[in-house]
Automatic annotation (TrEMBL), chain A:
Protein name per UniProt: ABC-type transporter, integral membrane subunit
Any one GO BP annotation for this protein: transmembrane transport
Keywords: Cell membrane, Membrane, Transmembrane, Transmembrane helix, Transport
Chief place of localization: membrane
Organism per entry: Streptomyces iranensis
One GO location term (cellular component): plasma membrane
From TrEMBL, chain B:
Span of domain ABC transporter: 2-232
Keywords annotated in UniProt: ATP-binding, Nucleotide-binding, Transport
Protein name from the UniProt record: ABC transporter related protein
InterPro entries tied to this protein: AAA+_ATPase (IPR003593), ABC_transporter-like_ATP-bd (IPR003439), ABC_transporter-like_CS (IPR017871), ABC_transporter_ATP-bind (IPR050166), P-loop_NTPase (IPR027417)
Source species, domain of life: Bacteria
UniProt-listed Pfam families: ABC_tran
Length: 269, 258
């Protein structure tokens, strides 16, 4: 890639970041104005600046941070568990047609069940603790990772497989040396999508459980307190910020790990 | 020695793509397979590589029946962009087939670098295939196919996607490597000039179904030169003969089915 193209790409990214900031500022100003105008009671919708100040304040609150830590721990554990299940399963289903056929009906039955609808059931089974959160997060995350693994394997170039076969590699070696690496960018995208879903599930199951430790618990308890709207919104700001940071971090990791993928070529190396 | 015995192939219930192919290739010969599109030349190559099981007939290599991919085989495909692994460096790509030989890592490494030197790409060892030009990528593919010192090298239109100048450079590189290593080479091409220039022997296939139409020895001096060799009367006479055979091979109506 020529230096001019690199410059153009960087300029494009800087411009996108700027536009993103403008969008945030406009939304912030609108919320602020709505909060201050008196159209909505400020107990229901405090001005955005107050919410933001409270969110920053919470950054120094050890109890709150411990809660966020607990939420992130459940999030990471659930996501890791889902990957540990879904990637090998995806490799199996993507490479053994009989296994895929056998699993099809079961998967098509389970997939449309909204994970949030399972919260009461899982709470009954596992109690309202972090196990419940982890289990729900894992359940929700299995699907995007599983489907992206199977899809990514299907996209493996037949010529890459023939090349390995012609060098005398067997079926498993072809799967691990051609299938897995060429599916890897798809799998990573599935993990990124799953990470966002995982955060939703982690916070939602904490909110519904209503006690314990976690960002969702904080939001739920603030919601029951008088004049707690500001705390609720500050918690929501934290949840959103976590999601944003996680997404940015995972996108950066993908760019570094898969510089060969056509959409990254030249931007990393 | 490579022997192809009454080999026929069809895909599913389709018509014969190859019919009763008989061919014996002595060790060390560079044979080019040329023919009109649809004559089954790539199919024949895939059968020899053990990637495809022929519907009938058999292939033997040094007296052993080819059933699956033979040992000591090297393959170069036309589409280097898809055949090289983008997640591996150039050196790792070249070293990959050596894993099957059970060589320790350091030796694989050294052999890969030595092979890259032979194709003039020692400097590119740490780069990735997609950072190289098409000609360089096909050199990497050639180095990879030769890294394990194959006794038989199969090439499926290896230079078809390259520009004329690069193609000539690679043809000469191939001739140099063939002379140095002495392996048997079967090279499929649709380029008639190329089929004569690099070959010891040209086999022309006819289409619909694919069968051997002409089998021509190349009586050109072993030392080939892109300008001088192509100007020799023998070269011109042979390329005319091959060209005519290819044309006739495309025009013949399919024979009545037995």
């Amino acid at each position: 890639m020529s230096p001019a193209t690199v410059r153009r790409k960087r300029a494009g990214r800087a411009r996108n970041a700027l536009l993103g900031a403008v969008g945030v500022l406009v939304a912030f100003a609108a919320c602020e104005a709505l909060g201050r105008s008196g159209m909505v009671r400020s107990a229901f919708l405090p001005p955005a600046s107050e919410v933001l100040v409270r969110a920053v304040e919470l950054g120094g609150d050890t109890a709150f941070l411990n809660g966020v830590g607990a939420t992130l721990e459940a999030w990471a554990t659930g996501l890791a568990l889902a990957c540990a299940l879904a990637i090998p399963l995806g490799l199996l289903l993507g490479s053994v047609p009989a296994a895929a056929q056998a699993a099809r009906v079961l998967i098509e039955f389970l997939r449309p069940v909204p994970s949030v609808a399972l919260i009461p059931l899982v709470s009954l089974l596992l109690g309202a603790g972090s196990e419940t959160t982890v289990a729900l997060v894992a359940y929700a995350c299995v699907w995007p990772v599983l489907f992206n693994t199977v899809y990514g394997l299907g996209e493996t170039d037949p010529l890459a497989k023939d090349t390995l076969r012609a060098f005398g590699f067997g079926r498993l070696a072809v799967l691990l040396r051609a299938g897995l690496p060429s599916a890897a960018p798809f799998i990573a995208a599935g993990v990124r999508i799953a990470a966002a879903t995982a955060l939703i599930l982690a916070v939602a199951s904490e909110i519904l459980a209503g006690f314990g430790e976690g960002l969702g618990t904080f939001i739920a308890q603030a919601g029951m307190a008088t004049d707690g709207t500001r705390d609720v919104l500050a918690g929501v700001v934290w949840a959103g910020a976590l999601g944003l940071v996680i997404n940015l971090a995972l996108t950066a990791v993908e760019r570094r790990l898969f510089p060969w993928a056509p959409e990254h070529r030249g931007s990393g190396a | 020695m490579l022997r192809i015995d009454r080999l026929s192939h069809r895909y599913g219930d389709g018509p014969d793509v190859l019919q009763d192919i008989e061919l014996t290739v002595p060790d060390g010969q560079l044979l080019t397979l040329v023919g009109p599109s649809g004559c089954g030349k790539s199919t024949l190559l895939r059968c020899v590589a053990g990637l495809l099981r022929p519907s009938a007939g058999r292939i033997t290599l040094d007296g052993e029946v080819v059933d699956g991919v033979p040992d000591r085989l090297g393959v170069v495909f036309q589409d280097y962009g898809r055949s090289l692994f983008p997640w591996l460096s150039v050196r790792e790509n070249v070293a990959l087939p050596l894993r099957r030989r059970g060589l320790p890592r350091a030796e694989r490494h050294a052999a890969a670098v030595a092979m890259l030197e032979q194709v003039g790409l020692a400097d590119a060892a740490r780069r990735h295939p997609w950072q190289l030009s098409g000609g360089m990528q096909q050199r990497v593919a050639l180095a990879r196919a030769l890294a394990a010192r194959p006794a038989l090298l199969l090439m499926d239109e290896p230079f078809g996607a390259l520009d004329a100048q690069t193609r000539e450079d690679l043809e000469d590189l191939l001739l140099r490597l063939h002379r140095a290593e002495g392996m048997t080479i079967v090279l499929v091409t649709h380029d008639i000039d190329e089929s004569v220039y690099v070959a010891d022997r040209v086999v022309v296939l006819a289409a619909g179904p694919g069968r051997v139409r002409a089998d021509l020895p190349v009586a050109l001096p072993a030392e080939r030169d892109q300008i001088a060799t192509r100007g020799l009367p023998e070269f011109i006479a042979l390329r005319t003969e091959v060209g005519r055979a290819v044309r006739q091979g495309a025009a013949t109506p399919p024979p009545p089915r037995a």
